[in-house]
Specification:
about 0% strand, about 75% helix
Amino acid sequence: MGQAQFGGVAAGPVLGKGIELAGVDAVPMLPALPAAGCLAATWWLIRATGDRPPS
């Protein structure tokens, strides 16, 4: 199995375990946490590369 397919396989059980540990009220927050991490990484990459247009 390629790495690109791992997220789709792992997301269900990880979300289920998060609900089991934190409760049903945490469901909106569970997908928001990795999304916030991706947003922060994108912001950091843009700043680290100097925000230059492609040449």
